[in-house]
Specification:
By secondary structure, this protein is an alpha+beta fold. Helix content is 24%, strand content 22%. The protein has five helices and nine strands; from the N terminus they run ββαβααβαββαβββ. The strands form three sheets. A four-stranded mixed β-sheet has the order 1-9-5-2. A three-stranded antiparallel β-sheet has the order 4-7-6. Helix 2 packs across helix 5. The longest helix is centred in the middle third of the chain and has 10 residues. The relative contact order is 0.26. The N terminus is likely disordered.
Length: 158
């Protein structure tokens, strides 16, 4: 399988990552779908047949630190969360403004790790104290702790 940049992907030996349509606007109550715009680490791991991994799976950041600082340089040393979104348009925006390596569709029902929605945890406040809520609600983020196994990746979004 190739992503937008032409990289080949093998998955679990015989399993391939296929191109899939987004599920935006559909109602399939059995699915728990999120999307991720790939970074270079993600792309490299997929090309090796591996799942996705946080910048630092053993990092010490708490969820609020991830939500506010997850795009900063310090996140590579400290962030044990993987950002995903329930909104395909948000993923497309991150893909276009980032590495443009593509977007994968992920079934959270196949992720054995904690997946958290900051907007359901943090209060809606003004100022710095409200940033975790506002960042997470704007991005419709579901933050997955440590890793996403390859079996949870349904494919690339067309």
């Amino acid at each position: 399988m190739k992503n937008k940049k032409g990289a080949q992907y093998k998955v679990d030996g015989n399993r391939k990552i296929e191109r899939v349509e987004s599920t935006k606007g559909t109602d399939n109550s059995n699915e728990n779908i999120v999307y991720r715009a790939l970074n270079q680490k993600d792309s490299d791991r997929l090309s090796q047949g591996l799942g996705l991994e946080a910048k630092n799976p053993n990092g010490t950041w708490k969820l609020d630190e991830h939500l506010v600082g997850g795009s900063g340089k310090a996140s590579w040393a400290n962030d044990p969360f993987i950002s995903t979104t329930t909104d395909i348009d948000v993923a497309r925006g991150f893909n276009q403004s980032g590495s443009n390596l593509g977007i994968v569709k992920i079934d959270l029902n196949k992720v054995p790790y904690q997946a958290l929605k900051g907007y359901e945890i943090y209060p809606r406040l003004n100022g710095v104290e409200g940033l975790p809520y506002h960042y997470s609600i704007w991005q419709q983020e579901v933050s997955v702790h440590q890793s996403i196994p390859i079996k949870a990746i349904k494919g690339f979004v067309k």
